[in-house]
Amino acid sequence: MAVFGVLAALMGVVGLVAPDALLEVMGFTPVAGSRRADEDHTLVFVTASSMAALNVGVYYVLAALSDWKAFFRWTVPFRLLTCAVFTLAVIGGRAPAGFLGVGVWEGVGAVVTGAALRHERGRMPPGADEALRPRGSGGS
C-alpha cells in the first residue's frame, strides 16, 4: 500500500507542477494556456484533484507505516466504486478512452488490496484481529 501511496503522491505532484503532462497521461488533449477560454476551468480541477491525490498518497503511506489495516479495508469498496464511475464516464462519452486506465488502476488496486487483506487475515490466529474491529461491532 505504501507503493500505491507514493505513486498517488507523485502523480499529485506532477499535476501540480505540470498539469498538461498529467492530462496527457490520462488521455486528454492538453490545450495551450493562450488558447483556453476564460470559462475553461480545467486547470482548477486538475489542481484540486492533484492536491487530493497528493494528500491521499500521504495518507496511504502513513497508514502503511502504522499497519492500519482497517483503513485499507475501507478503501476497497470505494476504489471499486471509483473504478465503476470512471469506466462509465468513458463508456458514456464524458471522458476519453485513455481515462479508462485510471479506472482500471483503481479496480485492480482494490482487488489486490482485498486479496492481500484476506490472505493476511487467513494467516492470523483466531481472534488476533479483534483490535481492528470498530467498537460495538460484536464480531464479523
Q: Outline of this structure?
A:
The protein is an all-alpha fold and 140 residues long.
* SS field, number of helical segments: 5
Total E-strand runs: 0
Q: Helix coverage percent of residues?
A: 55-70%
The coarse overall form would be elongated
Structural class: mainly alpha
Sheet-strand content, in percent, reads under 5%
What does this structure look like?
The protein has 140 residues and is mainly α. Helix content is 67%, strand content 0%. The longest helix is centred in the middle third of the chain and has 24 residues. The radius of gyration is 18 Å and the shape is elongated. The mean pLDDT is 86.
Descriptive labels:
0% strand, mainly alpha, single chain, 140 residues
Question: Layout of SSEs?
Answer:
Blueprint lengths: L1 H16 L1 H7 L16 H24 L3 H23 L8 H24 L17
Helix pairs in contact: 1-2, 1-3, 4-5
